[in-house]
Amino acid sequence: MNDVWPDKCGVYILDNESTATRFIDKKIKELDSMDSEEPFQVLNLDTLIQMHLKWLSYLPRVKPFYAVKCNSTETVLRTLNALGTGFDCASKGEISQVLSLGVKPENIIYAHTTKPQSHIKYACAQGVNLMTFDDEEELQKVSRCHPKAKLVLRIAVDDSSSFYRLSSKFGAGLSTTGRLLECAAELGLEVVGVSFHIGSKCSQSLAFRQAIADARSVFDTKLLGFQFSLLDIGGGFSGKDFPFSEVINGALDEYFPFESGVQVIAEPGRYYAESTFTLAANVIAKRVIMEDMRTEGESPEKLMMYYLSDGVFGSLNSVLKFTDKNEVTPYLHRAVDNDEKRYRSVIWGPTCHNIDKIVDNYLITELHVGDWLLIDNIGAYGISISTEFNGFKRSMYICVTPTHPSWLYYHHKLCCEVGFHFLVYESCGSTKPVERQTKTYQPMSMSRDTNKGSLTLLHYKEIKGSLCS
């Protein structure tokens, strides 16, 4: 095993003089010294924690149930479990994964309206009771496989302002909800609430307001004796900011005031995962194409083509399916003169497929084989749906956290309750080799470098297991 990747996946604690960017610099130098072009991702746990604190600040009434499908990296799941989120699972596999990490069954919603019977039976056996439905056939299956389930009726809402629409596939029309509730009552099933999903990357805040109003109309159906106590406002939250919080909070106060006693949950995925991951990929090949400008007296223009060690079949799979290519902004790892000429460029992934294109007509300074490009905000869906097409391995990921106050506040939970371990590694601010010795990490007693006065890297020796297999 080489020195670049730890033998177990762990968290590197950065001292006060270090940043995630400097950590990436160091990793790249190590890879270069080994003539390795292996791509890697850096997961910044502090960013993940900050996103959670931001959620609590902007939507204090809404408990997040993280959408596991968005990024099922074990480190992310363990961290969110320690922070107290719930989990939105869509299959037996996802339920099994989060349960194996110590998540309680009551903190899981089986949020898929078309479930295999065997998966429903598994949920029943594991005590996962909360699940969604939108059709009579689904109610029949639940009646047979999990008669004690606590059901949530998913309604179709206007998702025309979303980048990725879902209501054409899931959700009951408002005109059909009465019949569905009658069917549930006839089968002796318990319906506890209503859910909706406005689609991925919604651009209009009023979509949330109208959906919440629609849910209220279903809550007001009291003829069948159901006592609804849960509202699930789904996902669709941006990974960059919180533009809709004022509208959502206002609609909740109007239609589901605090004194109503209704519990409100949501299913954010992209919001948590997107900004927490950065990709580093190597320029493995380059082509220069001289294009005829077709104007007399002008010289042909250079079109640059670069090929990276990772692409849309790997970590950037979401570029192909879920992301506007204009949002992908690779940047050069090494320093660049601001006056250096930029060239129109196409950046490809490593495979032989012509759809493996990361960006097109992208202005960037001239690159060279061996350079490294960084791409931020790649944590949503890329890992979950990445492949090893053409034999290119999935990129490794490394977890880091600066010694930010939010980390110091939560590290006790992460160590004692979740079983994180930390790895000895030289300080990012130092070029001296480190002695590879094992130190047992005692929570809340971080050693201190007396010369720098800053927290140093520590090792938590597999007291309760590793972050990832």
Automatic annotation (TrEMBL):
Q: Which CDD domains match?
A: PLPDE_III_ODC (cd00622)
Quaternary form? Answer: Homodimer. Only the dimer is catalytically active, as the active sites are constructed of residues from both monomers.
Q: Which GO terms describe its biological process?
A: putrescine biosynthetic process from arginine, via ornithine
Residues in Orn/DAP/Arg decarboxylase 2 N-terminal domain copies: 46-273
Q: Which organism is it from?
A: Takifugu rubripes (Japanese pufferfish)
Q: Please indicate if the UniProt record lists Lyase as a keyword.
A: yes
Metabolic or biological pathway: Amine and polyamine biosynthesis; putrescine biosynthesis via L-ornithine pathway; putrescine from L-ornithine: step 1/1
GO molecular function: any one? ornithine decarboxylase activity
Q: Which PROSITE patterns match?
A: ODR_DC_2_1
An example Gene Ontology CC term for this record = cytoplasm
Where does the signal sequence lie?
none
What is this protein's record name?
A: ornithine decarboxylase
Give the modified residues of type N6-(pyridoxal phosphate)lysine: 69
UniProt similarity note: Belongs to the Orn/Lys/Arg decarboxylase class-II family.
